[in-house]
């Protein structure tokens, strides 16, 4: 059982947390295809800090990094917000 999170974890937990983040990212990326075109992806990796590690992510469009997030769950939050705004625009409402 993991004690760490994307924000702060032990080195021994990074592989499992990266795998979890990749699983969490996939449904979000699948939904995002309905709103945006292009090859959109999330590259997940561990970042070493003084007190431990965090799990970060880069939002990529056509394999170019357009934004970096640390921790990676901020990326998930941002993408969900973007989809909500696009959905509201398509329904004719301004958010």
Would you write up a description of this structure?
The structure is a single chain. The chain has 95 residues and is α+β, with helices and mostly antiparallel strands. The protein has one domain. The protein contains two helices and three strands, in the order αβββα. The protein has a three-stranded antiparallel beta sheet, with helices on one face. α1 packs parallel to α2. The chain is elongated.
Write the layout of secondary structure elements.
Blueprint: H1 14-32, E1 40-48, E2 53-61, E3 64-69, H2 73-90
Antiparallel strand pairs: 1-2, 2-3
Short description:
With 95 residues, this protein is of the alpha+beta class. Helix content is 39%, strand content 25%. The longest helix is centred in the first third of the chain and has 19 residues, at 14-32.
Strands, total number: 3
| Number of helices, where a helix is a run of at least 4 consecutive DSSP H or I residues | 2
Order of helices and strands: HEEEH
Which residue ranges are poorly predicted, with pLDDT under 50 across at least 5 consecutive positions?
Answer: none
Number of domains: 1
Q: Spatial order of the strands in the main sheet?
A: 1-2-3
**Percent of residues in helical segments?**
25-40%
User: If you compute it from the alpha carbons, what radius of gyration comes out, rounded to the nearest whole angstrom?
Assistant: 15 Å
Distance between the termini: 40 Å
What percent strand?
25-35%
What about the largest sheet? 3 strands, antiparallel
What is the SS-derived class? alpha+beta
- Overall mean confidence score, pLDDT: 92
- Form type: elongated
């Amino acid at each position: 059982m993991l004690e760490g999170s994307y924000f702060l974890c032990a080195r021994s937990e990074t592989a499992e947390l990266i795998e979890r983040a990749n699983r969490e990212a996939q449904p979000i990326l699948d939904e995002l295809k309905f709103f945006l075109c292009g090859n959109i992806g999330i590259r997940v990796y561990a970042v070493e800090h003084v007190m431990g590690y965090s799990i970060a992510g880069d939002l990529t469009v056509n394999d170019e990094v357009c934004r970096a997030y640390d921790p990676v769950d901020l990326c998930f939050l941002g993408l969900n917000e973007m989809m909500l705004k696009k959905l509201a625009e398509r329904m004719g409402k301004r958010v």
